[in-house]
Design goal:
- The structure holds two protein chains of two kinds.
- Chain A is α+β, with helices and mostly antiparallel strands.
- Chain A has two domains: 172 residues, no CATH class; 97 residues, Alpha-Beta Plaits.
- Helices cover 72% and strands 9% of the residues of chain A.
- Chain A contains ten helices and four strands, in the order H-H-E-H-E-H-H-E-H-E-H-H-H-H.
- Chain A is elongated and about 100 Å long.
- Chain B has one domain: P-loop containing nucleotide triphosphate hydrolases (Rossmann fold).
- In chain B, the strands form two sheets. Chain B has a six-stranded mixed sheet with strand order 6-7-8-3-9-10, with helices on both faces.
- The radius of gyration of chain B is 17 Å and the shape is globular.
- Classes of the chains: A alpha+beta, B alpha/beta.
- At the A-B interface, helix 8 of A face helix 2 and helix 3 of B.
- The complex binds adenosine-5'-diphosphate and magnesium ion.
- The site of magnesium ion has 3 residues of chain B, from helix 1.
Chain lengths: 287, 226
């Protein structure tokens, strides 16, 4: 365990730099963690909404119930369609007055029911992409007693694009923190290399391979990285709890994501250390 | 074994530290590399250990050449060429035996083999009794012998020693020379830099390669024939 001992000694030798590196990696992974939390919760919300993705076909008032029933059967035979439910004018009015209680008086005063009958068409899980939904809506609207077909896909797409924007922002933020973290770890490791220059020179003289010499420094980078990752995990969990307690109920990240975050932090630390120590070793030896 | 072909090393000053030097140290041979201070002895030893590159010419050691060797071959070369520095270069926080073991650990051989091997090396240099001492608790001659044991750890083909008697009294010097002769008798080539004329006088049968301001001016094995 000589390399581990030396890695810890190296971290103790420059506590301020080690702390700064830890913080930088922590912030880097924290910004990624916040995005992950947002993205994951959007995903959870979307998967609930997606089950309800449907096309609504509003029917002309002059369509007879028998014809509508035939059309409903035909629509249900489309490969994309899971079910088509008939909502009569009366049911539509009832639903509307129930959902929009402020207007219930208005509705009950009406002499003529202004709401059209409709078919609510739900789609099979494999056919819920925007293009499928649009295709079904187009096909249904060609039916001559369909007034208009609408689908609620637009706002789902809007949420998706919001998620992409948030993801882009978090990636840029995370990457700039990661760059700063890599620089700091590089400086910390180079200080460790310089502090041990004499020992490294002796290692080279007695025939140590570069890989052997690098090992403790890589471990130093790995430990700093994983330490920063744990810090980020703690901060992300803190943010999660704060939101959970004060604003809305959230879902915590899947284990796979948190593990991947820690692995990323460790890898970042190790790569930064590797780069720094390689450069120093090339400087120390002339070949 | 060790061959220099028209080697010149310049550090950018007006005159070269080593100028057009050629010689061949054969397998199992013992030679003194001599000359006044600043003549270029240390520079030549460093070139042989490939701690430095020649400005022109070629240094060959075993199957390696200074003009073709790759960075990843250096560890193997350095294990084949033991180097005893003038200032010993021991690690101050390690004991004598740990300093010797260090040279074995870096090669990745098993712990079980290191212990007995270190014991044998310290016996060989007559330092078994001081195995647990730190460098600062040892005399100059004793530190020198730790450095020799470390240089021998990986069974080198050649042992380079830079003024190994420079800091030692007469008795200790004689001891180190005797040690080198025994090492040489077991088949290891030895190239020892020294400007101690007393030593040259006492060992008239040993080959002498003499430098003057970087040039080879005398080789008792027959001029510059390489
Ligand atoms: N790293 C260096 N940079 C500049 N000049 C050097 C360097 N090493 C040696 N020299 C010069 O090269 C010459 C030979 O030095 P050196 O090989 O140490 O001689 P010696 O070991 O015989 O005393 C000297 O003039 C010395 O100043
Ligand atoms: Mg010298």
């Amino acid at each position: 365990m000589r390399p581990l001992r030396e890695a810890l000694a190296g971290m103790r030798r420059a506590p301020v730099l080690t702390f700064l590196s830890l913080m930088a990696i922590g912030l880097s992974v924290f910004s990624i963690g916040l995005f992950a939390l947002t993205a994951h919760n959007i995903d959870v919300a979307l998967s609930n909404v997606e089950g309800r993705v449907e096309v609504v076909a509003y029917l002309r008032d002059d369509a007879s119930e028998e014809l509508i029933e035939i059309a409903r059967h035909e629509i249900e035979s489309y490969p994309e369609v899971q079910a088509a439910r008939y909502i009569s004018k009366v049911e539509a009015l009832y639903e509307a007055s129930r959902e929009l209680t402020e207007f219930s008086d208005v509705y009950s005063d009406l002499e003529v029911n202004p709401l059209p009958a409709s078919l609510e068409i739900s789609l099979r899980p494999d056919f819920r992409t925007p293009s499928d939904v649009e295709a079904v809506a187009d096909r249904v609207s060609t039916d001559h007693f369909v007034e208009e077909a609408r689908y609620g896909r637009e706002w789902v797409d809007r949420i998706y694009s919001l998620r992409r924007v948030a993801g882009g922002a978090a990636t840029i933020l995370g990457l700039s923190f990661a760059l700063g973290a890599a620089l700091l770890i590089g400086i910390a490791v180079r200080m460790s290399v310089l502090a041990r220059a004499r020992e490294i020179a002796i290692m080279q003289i007695v025939g140590a391979t570069d890989a052997y010499i690098r090992r403790p420094f890589l471990i130093e980078g790995l430990l700093t990285g994983v330490g920063g990752g744990l810090l980020a995990l703690a901060m992300t969990f803190g943010a999660y709890q704060a939101v959970e307690r004060t604003l809305v109920s959230l879902a915590w990240l899947p284990d796979l994501w948190t593990t991947a975050g820690l692995a990323f932090a460790g890898l970042l630390g190790m790569l930064a250390a590797d780069r720094a120590v390689r450069r120093e070793l090339r400087r120390l030896d002339v070949y | 074994m060790v061959q220099l072909r028209s080697v010149t090393k310049s550090f950018g000053g007006s005159s070269a530290a080593v100028l057009d030097v050629s010689f061949h140290l054969k397998k199992g041979e013992f030679a003194f590399l001599t000359g006044a201070s600043g003549a270029g002895k240390t520079t030549i030893l460093k070139l042989v250990h490939m701690l430095d590159r020649p400005t022109s010419g070629e240094v060959r050691v075993s199957r390696y050449s200074s003009s073709r060797i790759r960075r990843r071959d250096l560890p193997d070369l350095r294990r084949r060429v033991g180097y005893v520095f003038q200032d010993f270069r021991l690690l101050e926080n390690l004991t004598a035996e740990e300093n010797v073991a260090f040279a074995l650990q870096v090669t990745g051989i098993s712990k079980a083999k290191i212990g007995p091997r270190v014991q044998k090396l310290l016996n060989q240099v007559g330092l078994a009794a001081r195995a647990r001492a730190l460098p600062r608790e040892l005399s100059g001659g004793e530190q020198q012998r730790v450095a020799v044991a470390r240089a021998l750890a990986n069974e080198p083909l050649v042992l380079l020693a830079d003024e190994p008697t420079g800091n030692l009294d007469e008795r200790a010097s004689a001891g180190v020379l005797g040690l080198f002769q025994r090492i040489n008798a077991s088949g290891t080539s030895v190239l020892m830099a020294t400007h101690d004329s007393e030593i040259l006088r006492r060992h008239r049968n040993v080959r002498v390669i003499e430098l003057e301001q970087g040039r080879l001016v005398f080789d008792s094995a027959g001029g510059t024939a390489a």
